[in-house]
Amino acid sequence: MKMQKEDFAAILKAMNGLPVTIRLLDPPLHEFLPNLGDLRVEVAELKHRGASSEELAVKEELLANVRTLSEANPMLGLRGCRLGITRPDIYQMQVRAIFEAACDVVEEGYEPVVEVMIPLVGIDKELALLKESTEKVIHQVFEERGIRIGYKIGTMIELPRAALTADEIAKHAEFFSFGTNDLTQTTFGFSRDDAEGKFIPEYVELGILEKNPFEVLDTEGVGKLIDMAVKLSRQVRPDIKLGVCGEHGGEPKSIKFCHQVGLTYVSCSPFRVPLARLAAAQAVVEEEREVFIDK
Questions:
Q1: Which positions ≥6 away from 114 have C-beta within 8 Å?
Q2: What CA–CA distance (Å, rounded) separates 74 from 167?
Q3: Which stretches make up the PEP-utilising enzyme C-terminal domain (predicted)?
Q4: Is 153 strand, coil or helix?
Q5: 166 class by beta-carbon count within 10 Å (0-12 exposed, 13-18 middle, 19+ buried)
Q6: Which pairs with CB-CB distance under 8 Å and at least 24 residues apart come from 257-265?
Q7: Helices (H), 36-87
Q8: Are 181 and 216 a contacting pair, CB within 8 Å?
Q9: For position 30, what pLDDT does the model report?
Q10: Burial of 94 (0-12, 13-18, 19+ CB in 10 A)
Q11: CATH of span 158-295
Q12: I need a surface site. Which of 8, 51, 173, 288 has the fewest CB within 10 A?
């Protein structure tokens, strides 16, 4: 927790007075564990050289745990909010680190603005449960430190079901961030890592796809889900903060679409920020020109 707390404090200081959205742990647990193949080799070598039963037992137990947690397709596995629900101590640790860091920087004269993002929500009850446990830890920290700061709790919309049930999820969320990279994966059934170099270029060449959907947002499919989620969520919570994160947030055509459906911000890689600002400004100017012409 100490390392995370230090990292969060540094970020909050650097962004003094500006909102900082911190996404809770998302990757599957096996990404933090030793490689399965390497462990198998180690166990075989230990047996070959006649290692002690104690040494072998420790390594075999680790191997068994890694094998249990290994997943061929992590988008369908134990990650995101599923991890936070089944192993609540992980998210509780992260939330405590975030708000202890926030209290530390308040005492140093800074003004942190914290937004906690719960990833991979697909069912409203997932967010309701995790919001409750998150706020419990937050208020424990506030009581211990005698400090209160404002905060928001929201989620990333990266599953089709989340977009389709956005009105239910919005009851528990103060903001949505559309994770368009993963939403594209889960909508198409494409793996970004596998598809780009294998068949997407051929699909574009054959005219099946107009553009690589991981580079330019698929407005006909993924875009319809986003548009639906925007409308549904604002029916329940008119002031909900809505944005997009991922590489689409720095692509001009995608930014124009985000503006048209009513998103309030885009997030992108640092090197894409100038292009994103220009594209956002052009989208506004173009809209105002169309309104002027219509009048």
A1: 12, 19, 20, 22, 98, 99, 102, 149, 150, 151, 152
A2: 27
A3: 3-283
A4: strand
A5: buried
A6: 257/217, 257/219, 257/223, 258/217, 258/226, 259/283, 259/284, 259/287, 260/287, 261/223, 261/226, 261/227, 261/230, 262/230, 262/234, 263/178, 263/226, 263/230, 265/241
A7: 36-48, 53-69, 81-86
A8: no
A9: 58
A10: buried
A11: 3.20.20.60
A12: 288
What does pLDDT average to over the chain?
88
Token reading at 210: 């107009």
Q: Which two tokens stand for residue 23?
A: 């996404």
48-52, 180-184, 186-190, 271-275: the lowest-pLDDT one: 48-52
The reported pTM is 0.84
Retrieve residue 49's tokens.
């050289």
d(CA 155, CA 169): 9
Residue positions counted in the chain: 295
| Residue 235 · residue 169 · CB < 8 Å | no
Predicted pLDDT at 31: 62
Backbone φ, ψ for residue 21 (5° rounding): -95, 120
From CA 56, how far away is CA 62, in angstroms rounded?
A: 10
Crossing angle of helices 53-69 and 36-48, in 10° steps, is 160
Contact 12, 114 (CB under 8 A): yes
- What confidence tens digit (pLDDT) does each residue in 50-107 have? 777 777 777 777 777 667 666 555 567 788 999 899 999 999 999 999 999 999 999 9
The DSSP H or E segment spanning 125 is: helix 124-145
